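Why show two proteins at once? Because comparison is the fastest way to build intuition. When a single record is shown, students tend to memorize it. When two are placed side by side, the eye starts asking what differs. So, the first record is below.
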Amino acid sequence: MNQNDQLPEVDEKLPLRQNLLLGLQHTVIAVLAAIPVPLLIATNVGLSPEQTRFFINAVIFGAGLSSLLMALNIVPKTSPKIPMVMGANFAVVPIASTTLNDAPNIETGFQIVAGSTMIVAILCFLAAPFWIKLQRFFPPVVVGTNLIVLGVSLLPNTFHWLMGDNAYELTESIDHETLLMALAIFVFHVIISKYFKGLLGNLTILISLIFGTLLALSLGMVDFSPVQEAPWFGLNLPFHYGLPKFDLTATFSFLIAIILGMVEISGTAMGIHNIVDKEMSKNQFRRVLQSLGITTFISGLFNGVQPTAFVQNVGILDLSKIKSRFAIATAGFMLVFIGFIPKFSALISAIPDPVLGGLGFAIFGIIIGSGINILKQVNFEGNQNMLIIGLSVGVCMLPSVYPNFYANFPAIVQNIFGSGILAGSLTAIILNLFFNFKEIKNGAN
């Protein structure tokens, strides 16, 4: 009898060829899901091409290590041993951007980001054993609303990509050539999304990205000189920008972000456990959150950002019907390898902003769609759940419409409420406590 026949599917070791192909598929989707985070932060703070290249490498490298820790028992008694692909948390985009912009220089900013990330990682690890008792405070109405808030808050970045150098000039209009190119990419993606199925259906963003880059290249909008100048191999070392520094305001903002990340990864983990037919016990909950704490600490160590689970890869897991965690471990190794190739990150950073703008609606719209899908579980009869959603989305839009709305307030208020993601998510949590306290107390929320 084959040894694999005695194992659950999640622990099945696949043939090498199948393992590599599935790992590659997950890797491609993970890279596409990860790169917007460093690109957004780089654009917001004006990182140099070299700094952007290093940041992308650090994030991809961190995604690979995080995925390995989730799939394999590398750190004893902390791995949930599940096929969960990890990557960058979108919730940190406004916080990291603000921290870097407010610092006296980029180096100091990254030192503060690293310090804050490592502190909240330790807190996440310590909170892991108690997290299951706190889950009642984050029912589907809160989780779904948080995802919608996340998508709505990130959508303006699409407009900034489209506007290029005039992103923050509200009196300027978009260039006709840019608009037509972005529209062509947008329509192309819509068409192939309708007709491409299976593997190709999961790679529509990548295919559209290649199409858009080739289109931009034909119009003379792509500069590949940074790719030619970038080395083939680059070693990611801890504390690239120096030893970590600690800032109370920044740490508090990053703490809120990791709490949101813990909520998100808990929901994703439950979905994965359901797909792979593995019990989501208290011990598994603990291991998922402990692994998140460890991977967040490592990300801070290597100058990355807080990781989270990629919902897109859950879809691939369900679609392929292959549940082996070793395929995800293979993807983790591939991501780590890519993290050592500066030419790859230079190629990513060479993609023109209008190309990303043409796909931005899809990239961030999927997040909104995921939130709406979760809200299907919510009861809207005889309660104020609709009001919770509406008010939270409204609050999250304030900083996007009026970036200086909180400019005259203390730094901690600006960091929290100046981020639409944090402000909207906190609103959802507080309003749910106010309106649904009885249900929370009884464990029925």
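Second record. Ask yourself what differs from the first in the token line.
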Amino acid sequence: MHRREQYGQVYGVHAIKADEISATAMLCSTLKKAEGYAKELSTDPGVLAAAVTRYIVDEQGRRTAVVLYVDGKAQNVPWISNDRRVLANGWSPNHGVK
């Protein structure tokens, strides 16, 4: 059986911190598992948010932002936090403001 036929897609969970976006913290076989872990991870000290990305196995460039959690709450737009502390790539609108 070909890998794509066996796995199809996987979900990566990433932590977003003030100064970095982590490499994949966990790969999950189901969205439910990934969302559960991301929700929990987003409440850890030092973590601003946790993101879930869907990857299509054996297809280059096939990834999609699925959900972003901040303080255990799913955000309306997966790549922009509703409270605007975290934007795409971990950029903060107040970055560098004193």
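One difference worth noting in the second protein: Strands lie at 9-17, 20-21, 26-28, 47-56, 63-70, 73-74.
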